[in-house]
Amino acid sequence: MVGVNASFFSEMLQSIAERSRAFLRERREPARERSDGLVELCEALLSGRGEASGVALANEILADYAELTIGPRIAFFEALATTFGHDRARIDAAVAAWRQAPSAEAATELHHAAEPRRLELFRRLNLAPGGTAALVRMREQLLDALDRRDDLAVVDKDFTHLFSSWFNRGFLVLRRIDWSTPAVILEKIIRYEAVHEIRDWQDLRRRIDLPDRRCYAFFHPALVDEPLIFVEVALTREIPAAIAPILSDKRAAVDPARATTAVFYSITNCQRGLNGVSFGHFLIKQVVEEVSREMPRISSFVTLSPAPNFAQWLKRERASEASLALREDDREALAALDSADWWLDPDVIGAAREPLLRAAAWYFVRARNSRGLPLDPVARFHLGNGARLERLDWPADTSARALAQSCGLMVNYLYDLDYIEKNHEAYAQQRSIVAASAVSRLARAPAREIVPVSG
């Protein structure tokens, strides 16, 4: 029903835009001759009052923007940052009015005056058919520019502010993805999967259509066939220590009636233009509720998570004589990891296991960035959601990417329903990392003082 309503609404807006196009063209023609481009069109959109002409103009602006090459696109972002920033004259007048006669009306005017003009511009552009999707793409291109243009960060902050409202939990719809899901969405699941590549349609079917597998995604009414984030779930009888048995096409399926554990083994954000807008914690909590309702026997909810920055950190520590995490004999044992195909040698794994796991425990429990947060981004996500750092698994993923990023290390985070809120508060308020006793013992502090490290 949501999809039908959204489709009808989109078609209605498109019809309005088309019927207004001729009217708008007549009205714009003289101004277009004086126009320098999109900036003038955006000014016209902000100054206009007619809804039909506004929809058509917004549609025209987004269509013109989509044709911009990189140079003109950066120039447009610059205009968003400057020309469509704050109206200082309006702010000064609103402040003066508030000081002279404080009132609800004066406060409201001050609130509106303090808002940069580009926020209202984005709201009006959003009225165009497909406007939300176009703005998400626009922000994705802005993120590319931010790598070289810090001055555009003010525009990005406003995008994040608006998207946090437009994509809040109240608008999100959880849908289970299975073999009956429309092919257009299944194709996107294959394309977006960012943790463990989906090789083909048969691989996808094994992940979403077998009795011991589940996949759930969040959708938004304005992006009907676009998943925002999805999670793949394996039903097992124990906490897994490696990814290969879960992904194997020769594995024996588990009877859901005998499963005791739900494993979140892949969580993928699909829309880069929505980076910074948090969906994951809502998704995990709702999926836990869905699985618990369907299968009350499931008592453990865990992840099997990657550690994308661990290998880089370990390389730095091995090269540092002042490392707090490694001893000299640890470096000698870990040197064997530089050899080709080391993961196939049981002797290398046996010698390196203890020093690597001790280093990993230090990395997750004690190493912090300059803001006092854990170095690992996946750890920050799950710990912030109230999970417990339950177990370190090595070697758990011997794919080429995992070996390069994490030396094959993976992590189990446990979502204990009785402690999620308590763990979340401990992390949010004191940056406390709740870890299982076995991990905490591995991370016992050396005598030297702990200092923040960059990350």
Q: Care to describe what's here?
A:
There is one protein chain. Helix 2 (38-47) runs antiparallel to helix 3 (51-66), helix 5 runs antiparallel to helix 6 and helix 7 (117-125) crosses helix 9. Strands 1-2-3-4-5 form a 5-stranded mixed sheet, with helices on both faces. A 3-stranded antiparallel sheet has the order 6-8-7. It folds into 3 domains: 2-166, Butyryl-CoA Dehydrogenase, subunit A, domain 3 (Up-down Bundle); 170-303, 3-Layer(aba) Sandwich (Aminopeptidase), CATH 3.40.630.180; 306-442, 3-Layer(aba) Sandwich (Aminopeptidase), CATH 3.40.630. The chain has 20 helices and 8 strands. With 455 residues, the chain is of the alpha+beta class. Strand 4 (261-269), helix 13 (280-294) and strand 5 (300-303) form a beta-alpha-beta unit.
